[in-house]
Write a structure and sequence with these properties.
14 helices; 4-stranded antiparallel β-sheet; 491 residues; 22% strand; binds zinc ion
């Protein structure tokens, strides 16, 4: 074949599809992407990237195209240098995100998760992820990613599921996993707990309302003393009674107030600490307490405390010994702990009713425009409601100490270096991690409760009877683990 002849057989335009898959298959067939552990034993220098597993929620987007290309460049560069280069691929089951995609499909089909039931729903999600998961892996191949496909993993694989269970049990044995009451981010529509990242929301124009709580007649002289000392929150009502002013962006929560708080060193309010104030609309008296959390410089220096509906207030209540009173249902309507007039009202209807009734009683001091962050459910955009509930937690302090030490002593380094500070601040201010999710898609929590004696069992193997009383009536915890509980063990 002469040169002129060859030129004639070339297609006018380059068709990558006709060429790339053949070349790619050749690489795979000849085992170029594998890494032989024996070479490391013989002194080979390993270079390993564990893929951040893409969520099986949907096929890949351009962001994946970028970050996987970067990983591929690094791994191919090291491979060509003769290092024992290994890129481990796989996918993430992506708990709430995947469950929501399938739930939306069901709604479009005129049915629902509850209509299907737990088992059938989980089967349905498996069907869905079988399709998207395979497509994701095919997409990675199509852009040339040189992963060792013989090592492909999925976060719900049997092996990883065993690892998840083993780690849960071990951490529980080491007292690093516990069950506790806690204020969580809660979506009243999805009826599930959300992580901080899943409940970020955005800055929005809102209102700050100023509410007045009357001071009982017998404390009038203390109120007068506080007002004379410059206590801005203490003023007289039209009828001559003394009252406190507190401010809130969520007036309906006042129905669950169990105290008001000032800073212990705020001398203005000294005469009032330890006394009671009347909580309007609820017909209760609540105490005035002192707590370091309160910022004396902010507003009037006095805050209302709603322990069951605000994470900071929950902590104040713990320190000051205040009652925790939950006044809302899981769907964020007022429950039977709220005064009768508001029971059954949705939180936003209750807000209007509370403001109207306070106004009628001359106890609404005013309203200011207030721009603030309103957290929203990242799946459905519903305003998140802080909620008191029983959840499982990982005690992060002892682990963060080790992780911090590893950064301080140079065992772990960051590129670029400025992220070291971000990481260290994160470790220094770590909070316990809420790992339970009210979902069906994910690793079920390996805890069983005895229906007869209440024994709680955290186990590596499924039990057949209660270890305390021998009863066969056992119920497994219905929740699943946060999707990160498996990806933190990846691969
Ligand atoms: Zn939601
Ligand atoms: Zn029992």
């Amino acid at each position: 074949m002469g040169p002129a002849e060859g030129a004639q057989t070339l297609p006018k335009t380059f068709d990558p599809a006709a060429v790339e898959s053949r070349i790619y298959q050749g690489w795979v067939d000849r085992g170029y992407f594998g890494a032989d552990p024996a070479r490391v034993k013989e002194g080979g220098d390993p270079y390993v990237i564990v893929i951040p597993p893409p969520n099986v929620t949907a096929v890949l987007h351009m962001g994946h195209g970028l970050n996987n290309t970067v990983q591929d460049v690094l791994i191919r560069w090291r491979r060509m240098q003769g290092r024992v280069a290994l890129w481990v691929p796989g996918t993430d089951h992506a708990g709430i995100a995947t469950q929501n995609v399938v739930e939306r499909q069901l709604v479009a089909e005129g049915t629902s998760r509850d209509a299907l039931g737990r088992e059938a729903f989980v089967d349905r999600v498996w069907d869905f992820v079988g399709t998207t998961g395979n497509q994701i892996l095919e997409q990675l191949k199509a852009i040339g990613c040189s992963c060792d496909w013989t090592r492909t993993r999925f976060t719900l694989d049997e092996g990883l599921s065993r690892a998840v269970r083993e780690v849960f049990v071990r951490l529980h044995e080491a007292d690093l996993i516990y069950r506790g009451e806690y204020i969580i981010n809660w979506c009243p529509r999805c009826l599930t707990a959300l992580s901080n990242e899943e409940a970020e929301g955005s800055e929005s124009d809102g209102s700050l309302w100023h509410l007045r709580y009357p001071i009982p007649q017998e404390s009038a002289s203390s109120a007068e003393a506080a007002a004379a000392a410059g206590a801005e929150a203490v003023t007289r009502l039209g009828d001559g009674r003394w009252a406190l002013t507190v401010s809130t962006t969520r007036p309906e929560t006042m129905l669950g107030d169990t105290g008001v708080a000032v800073h212990p060193e705020d001398a203005r309010y000294g005469p009032l600490v330890g006394l009671d104030v009347e909580l309007p609309l609820a017909g209760r008296r609540i105490p005035i307490v002192a707590d370091e959390y309160v910022d004396a410089e902010f507003g009037t220096g006095m805050v209302k405390v709603t322990p069951a509906h605000d994470p900071n207030d929950f902590e104040i209540a713990g320190r000051a010994g205040l009652t925790v009173l939950n006044v809302m249902t899981p769907a964020a309507a007022m429950n039977d702990e709220a005064p009768e007039a508001y029971r059954g009202l949705d939180r936003f209807e209750a807000r209007k009713a509370v403001l109207r009734d306070l106004e009628d009683q001359g106890l609404l001091a005013g309203r200011d425009d207030h721009r603030h962050n309103i957290p929203r459910c990242y799946r459905c955009d519903t305003v998140v409601e802080p909620r008191l509930s029983e959840q499982w937690f990982v005690r992060m302090g002892p682990m963060a100490e080790k992780a911090l030490a590893a950064s301080k002593d140079g065992t772990v380094t960051f590129t670029p270096g400025r992220w070291t500070k971000v990481y260290e601040q994160w470790m220094e201010n770590i909070r316990d991690w809420c790992i339970s999710r009210q979902l069906w898609w994910g690793h079920r929590i390996p805890v069983w409760y005895c229906d007869d004696c209440g024994e709680v069992m955290v186990l590596r193997e499924d039990p057949t009877e209660c270890r305390a009383c021998g009863s066969g009536g056992l119920t497994q915890d219905p929740d699943v683990l946060d999707t990160w509980f498996s990806s933190w063990l990846w691969p």
